[in-house]
Amino acid sequence: MMKVYLGIDVGSVTTKIALVDENGKHVDSYMTRTAGQPVLAVQKCLDNLLSQSNGAEYEICAVGTTGSGRNLAGALVGADVIKNEITAHAVAASAAVPGVQTILEIGGQDSKIIILRDGIVTDFAMNTVCAAGTGSFLDHQAQRLNVDIKDFGDIALKSKSPARIAGRCGVFAESDLIHKQQLGYAVEDLLYGLCQALVRNYIANLALGKDLLPKISFQGGVATNKGMVKAFEEELGCEIIVPPHHQTMGAIGAAMLAMEHHQYTGEKTKFKGWTIKDMEFHSITCTCSGCSNNCEVITILEGKEEQDRNTITKIGDIKGNIIARWGGTCGRWDIS
User: What is the pLDDT of residues 77-133, one digit of tens each?
Assistant: First the structure.
């Protein structure tokens, strides 16, 4: 039986899962769309990771979670380490690209930049507001141009005279794209123009005042787009490295952090087992009236929903096998 460490990265658009061995080397990974159902996404990832293992048996020594849904995932699977995305991506990038000093990460709904010096994170910035700086922006515009997102990069690279598209705002960018389309610009020029617009948006919003030194690692789903890689190289004037498994770097980093924790402490893992993939869970949201904050507290319970929600007037009324609870400002109701 192979000893491995499990990492789970639950994002707003996609959920990623990865295994690394006792030396931190990538063993396997899987990714699926979160689709607004993070619990089901985690279960699907676990199920498919086992299915594609070709009969390999894994002994999970420790589990790490990251991403916007890291607390939920951690409660469900029994995580030993719960870390933010900045730390997870930095750890994975440092292993995949030795000497990395700048990490560019663009996902479906957010983007981030991480500055490292001598392997230590010294600065970072995140964009969770402007849609024009994310992968969903490119996805949406590709649909408008009737282009499969998988072919986006290859077509964009054919551009000889890219369209200049305003990229500071998603709404203005879309209006500008429509205008350029009506003027008769070629599809490849529009696509590469979109790549350049996103890069300008990224640099203006996240990299302002930061020294972007090579080696530069480009991570996240958007790094698959060859047009984006070229646009960044033109803008920054240096090579952009797209590491292997760039889409699952957050999960790989979480697994490596779990590995470090286990090897340092020697503690037995809290992992609840692969049977989690077959369990049923449900959630109940209830407003706490303990103070004027009126926090919305989320409770995750195992099993089918049996209690009538209409009978629940306060959090204490919730009955059942409670797996996790959070959302309050004071932490009064938190269970992890």
Answer: 999 999 999 999 999 999 999 999 999 998 777 789 999 999 999 999 987 556 556
- Identity of the amino acid at 137: F
Element (H, E) at 115: strand 111-117
Q: What is the pLDDT of residues 129-184, one digit of tens each?
A: 565 567 777 888 888 888 888 899 999 999 999 988 876 666 667 787 788 888 88
CA distance 150 to 152: 6
User: What type of residue sits at position 13?
Assistant: V
Radius of gyration of the chain (CA): 22
For the chain, what's the residue count?
336
Q: pTM for the full model?
A: 0.86
Question: What is the Cα–Cα distance from 261 to 228, expressed in whole angstroms?
Answer: 36
Let me know: does 255 contact 5? Beta carbons within 8 Å.
yes
The tokens for 176 are 């500008």
Q: How many CB atoms lie within 10 A of CB 54?
A: 6
- In 3D space, the residue among 162, 170, 144, 164 whose CA is nearest the CA of residue 227 turns out to be 162
The CA–CA distances, whole Å, from 187 to 102, 157, 165 equal 32, 11, 13
